[in-house]
Amino acid sequence: MNPIRLLLAVAGMAASASAFAPTAFVHRAAAPQQRSALQMVQGQGDSYKKVFVAGGSKGVGRLVVDKLLAAGSEVVALVRSDEAVEELSALDGVTAIKGDAMDYKSVEGSIDGCDAAITTLGGKMDDGKYVDYVGNNNVIEAAGILGVTRVVLVTSIGCGKSKDATPPSVYEVLKDVLAQKEKAENVLSKYYTNMNWTIIRPGGLVSEPETKQAILTEDTMAIGSIHRGDVADLVVQALSSKATEKKILAAVDPSIPSTANPEGRTAEAFALA
Fold first, then answer.
1. Strand partners, 124
2. Do strands 196-202 and 247-252 pair parallel, antiparallel, or not at all (unpaired)?
3. Which of 102, 176, 184, 220 is the most buried (most CB within 10 A)?
């Protein structure tokens, strides 16, 4: 197969967004008197009234916004451009805030008052800086300080133990961005043990209508493609599922043929209920 086509088929695993240079993890002392609304509804585990979305201007994040609105949640979206603010502000139930995920204070100010947070940040800019670690780390840290204990982080197959599932030629191309995503995963899972976090690792992203056949799985060898709409659907389902708390899950669609899975290997679906 043409190698360019192969890379295009799987390059969606590196989610696109503005990016920032990695920095060391810095712990900020929590403000003891702040209390999120999540602390009042957290025990329900089935709905979140106000959800912060980082990366909500395009790709999976933009579709997450639509699905949250359809589920009855309000959305606060931090976006970088005036155009994105205008587009999202036109939607009933969305508060769009112009800001930069590299700036911790922008993230903290936007997430304050939310019940939960979803971040789909990722990508690399022309200056070589990544958002995959710093932007996601800012979301995680701000959530922790403000008491927003429900966080869903969207990364990619190829991170952590799922490295072995990724074809070597593909991993070689994506290894730098995957390393940044994995750093964010490690911060969330190792340092924020009080959070009810979920990490979702999609396979190769496809920009076509969703199939509704995609699954989440704990199988670290799962590999394949998935439509962006199906990723968004699984993210929103996972948000309200207690079964996904403190879980790392791959997201793939067994109904889509994938060059990364030529043998058609299947994985056991994770039960959300």
1. 130
2. parallel
3. 184
Element (H, E) at 68: helix 59-70
Is the torsion defined by CA of 183, 189, 191, 194 positive or negative?
Answer: positive
* Cα angle, residue 235 at apex, residues 176 and 106 outer, rounded to 5°: 65
Helix count (H) and strand count (E) of the chain?
8, 10
Alpha helices in 71-208 (DSSP H): 82-89, 104-111, 134-146, 168-186
Record the pTM.
0.83
Beta bridge partners of 98: 79
| The most confident of 18-27, 125-134, 174-183, by mean pLDDT | 174-183
Alpha helices in 116-241 (DSSP H): 134-146, 168-186, 228-239
